[in-house]
Amino acid sequence: SLNLNSGGCFDHSLLASLEEIPFRWCDERFNFQATFLQCLAKHVPNIYSAEMDPLLEKQEEMVQAAILYPLECYLFGEDPDIFLEKLQQSGTSQLCGKVFKGGETTYSCRDCAVDPTCVLCMDCFQNSIHKNHRYKMHSSTGGGFCDCGDTEAWKAGPLCTKHEPGASGSAKENSECQLNEEIMEHSRRVFPSVIKYIVDMLIWEEEKELPLELTVREKVDSYYCVLFNDEHHSYDHVIYSLQRALGCELGEAQLHTTAIDKEGRRAVKAGHYASCQEAKEEIKRHSENVSQRPLHVEVLHADVMAHQKFALRLGSWMNKLMSYSSDFRQIFCQICLEEAGSEKPCFISKLMLWDAKLHKGARKVLHELIFSSFFMEMEYKKLFAVEFVKYYKVLQKEYISDDHDRVLSVTALSVQMFTVPTLARHLIEEQNVITIITETLLEVLPEYLDKNDKFNFQGYSQDKLNRVYSVIYDLRYVLVSKPTLWTDRLRERFLEGFVSFLRILTCMQGMEEIKRQIGQHIEVDPDWEAAIAIQMQLKNILLMFQEWCACDEELLLKAYRECHKAVMRCSTNGRSREKTVFHLCGHILESRHYRVSADPVSIHLPLSRTLAGLHVRLSKTGTISRLHEFVSPEEFQVELLVEYPLRCLVLVAQVAAEMWRRNGLSLISQVFYYQDVKCREEMYDKDIIMLQIGASLMDPNQFLLLILQRYELTDAFRKMKPTKDQDLIKQCNVLIEEMLQILIYVVGERYVPGVSNVTKEDVTMREIIHLLCIEPMAHSAITKSLPENENNETGLENVIDKVATFKKPGVSGHGVYELKDECLKEFNMFFYHYTKTQHSKAEHTQKKRRKQENRDEALPPPPPPDFSPAFSNVVRILNCDVMMHILRTILQRAVELETHLWTEAMIQMVLHLLSLGLLEEKQQLQKSPEEEVTFDFYHKATRMGSSALNAVNVLMLLEKLKRVPQLEAQKDTVNWILQMFDTVKRLREKSSLTTVAATSVSEATKSDESTQDKEKAERKRKAEAARLHRQKIMAQMSALQRNFIETHKLLYENTLEAQGKEDAIMEEER
Ligand SMILES: [Zn+2]
Ligand SMILES: [Zn+2]
Ligand SMILES: [Zn+2]
Description:
Blueprint: H1 12-25, H2 32-47, H3 56-76, H4 80-89, E1 105-109, H5 122-126, E2 135-139, H6 181-202, E3 223-228, H7 235-246, H8 250-263, E4 265-271, H9 273-291, E5 297-301, H10 302-322, H11 326-337, H12 347-354, H13 360-372, H14 378-390, H15 392-401, H16 414-418, H17 421-431, H18 433-444, H19 462-479, H20 488-508, H21 529-549, H22 553-570, E6 579-584, E7 587-592, H23 606-621, H24 627-630, H25 633-636, H26 638-656, H27 664-675, H28 684-697, H29 700-710, H30 726-748, H31 760-772, H32 779-784, H33 796-803, E8 804-807, E9 816-819, H34 836-852, H35 881-895, H36 904-927, H37 937-941, H38 954-961, H39 971-1004, H40 1011-1047, H41 1049-1059
Antiparallel strand pairs: 1-2, 3-4, 3-5, 6-7, 8-9
Helix pairs in contact: 1-3, 2-3, 2-6, 2-10, 3-6, 6-10, 6-11, 6-12, 7-8, 7-9, 10-13, 14-17, 15-18, 15-19, 17-18, 18-19, 18-20, 19-21, 20-22, 21-23, 22-23, 23-28, 26-28, 26-30, 28-30, 30-36, 31-33, 35-36, 35-38, 36-39, 38-39, 40-41
One zinc ion is lined by residues 96, 124, 148, 160, 162-163.
């Protein structure tokens, strides 16, 4: 029952109404809506009359007595307290649904959460199985929601013991308690009026008037000057403005300011219209003086203010009611959605659309209402999500121009819907949400487009971009769980979304081009952070798109076609350039004139990199054999695909050679992030893959000529004109080192699923092995150096025990992981993710270790895994003429002691390439009969390089290299290679013998029909099938290659002529 005594004095007319209204409301014939509004019209202005200095307790008592108590009596048909007590006993929701306050601790289980956005409140966590799992704690920014009970959020243990059905005592017998029909009927009658009133008053825009139904008494000239919160003005600005404008004391101004920050708005002056209007102008004037922008101030009639206040009170009353019963929630949701689907927005959409215009306090009530109703009922959550997506563009645009924090925006609710896998699926299929989000991005980003329709973020606003990021985040949420079941419609909609996303990437492909600064240093470092930050935001989204595409063969091919088209559209701008022709060792390259050191270049190539990502997935799934059905060999144009990523790698080389030092720090930073763990997967790594694609599809000599040309090293590998310019020589040497390194990566880096047959685990293990080859490391140090996936996981825990042992901390410091001995053989000195410092540290550590073990110091590359069929042609760049020429030229310079033209690092790389060539031939010989192995590295390396009198071959040069005093440190490696030459030679000889032997043995046992033979036959059949599959893919590859040759027919005819001659004929560029 109601306790009226504590409040003290009480208006007798209110008491009268208390007795009279429930009686009247219970009358079946009466018009509830009208009576309800009459009641509000009568009481609300009285209750909330003392706005400036309210007695909150008294206000609340009056509200209870005059309005809420009678309302509840009518609704429940009995004493509200007794009724609600009964309802409470009869069972609660299986969803916790606790809404987090800012700063509250949330828990996420790393083992069981479907994605990192799934969290538990402290209570639920403590009562769940997850407290014994690996978990993460976070401090909530506010506005989140406990996911306890959501079966889609957890792989295991979705319910804590508190929320398990039948957990709370008496709830066991009757957890599905339903309201009786009479109460349902009353609710259907009461809720619409309540909701309509809340909506009407929250979106009410008239300052002076109320809706007609609420206007009863004579209007008095009683107004408030109301000040609103924003994120632009500081506390001090507001206090200052208030003191100056109202002439009030500091204490009072502070009080107002605190209240405004908390509630979102506050009356700072009461009085007649004119005086409030005057105060308004004063506040605006003073605030504009201190901060360029006036504060938001309104003059509101006292009655308007009162009703708006009460509307919020009614909102929290609804919240309370809905916490008791699912029926209440469902009825509320139904009414809020009425007319959804028609032209006119339904109640809840009206409120959403008004969100950005509401003050802070009102927004909080609105969001709580959504949480306590729609988000507690899965079916209605879906319907709400549909409405949300329907108005998504408008809502995001409003948010982007809003000045309140994201937690206070209705757009922040997206995570609650988009990360639910079934909901995301539904929104993609039915609402096309991927396309909607990408189109929203395209619509809010145009202000950053330059004349070429590329993004350019010079002079961007950080706040605004942060708001744009939240749209990008929504894309991540929608994609975070990959569908297991694909329908035609899902496929269609996803592809549509992907194509729309490609349009964003098109605006990024080649954005923020830079040109090498010559002479003077640049004056101002250009803004680079925004573009890199967007790249970081997009990294996992790009990966997820690729993963989604790879779910389905047909989809992957279609996506590939679209992406290929997009890359081609962006690659046409160089068409007008003149062609140049470059000859070396009898091979000719004709290409468009372009120099990284003189022409514009961009580090941003997301389209090319997405294509590379799709290409490895084609290879991984074997779908590549059907590629020609989707992209014809004529259209493919591999040399154009390679062009831009290659330029980017050359840029990195030239930066290392200090050719770009006048371009300042901005470029250094970009190059850093390009290779950093935060970006590299979708930047640097993909560029290497694109080069591997080029190497697998182009003629190997052509490929290398293109590399030489883009590295601007064509002269360096022809007859050197002696130059005295030390700087130029040094620069050239660095470029050669950088190029050799890239060649090592193209041939040797195969730890990508699809490039070879490795798993993600293998990849992570290899990363960890190479980190620990530098030195033993703490868990945190390893984690920091590994890329995170879309769930913010590195995969470290799954594999660390396979490659390392944990060494407990000594007296000080923390424990570290040490590499297991058996993993040391995996060490690759030229691991592509090593920075220069890491590279030399690792080399040093490993050499020292070998010395301690009394072993030689040779650190040859570990045998790499076999390339997948689609990439198997890459190895041919090792034994082609141009490669031999490069290797020989460098070795010769070292042997002839032309000290300034070579470096030890260069020799190390040459030795590494030689090792890779020999390892490849050895592996091939061990697998197939000698006559089938066409990879003839040994043969090429032992052949004379020129017809000149002092002609030498690589093998001879190596022998001489041992005597070069500066290369003492490389002696062991040279010896290792010489041994390898010997091994390969023996294998060549031996394998021809063993094949003979093998045939004779099989001949002898031919008649034996043992099970062993059947197994053998089965194995053979499988091997044959695999061979046929490989052959098929190779046929596709050579079709692509033939086309390449076709387009360069003229050149090839020249080459064919040249082939008969010695392969080192030097020719000048035409
Ligand atoms: Zn909870
Ligand atoms: Zn719970
Ligand atoms: Zn768990």
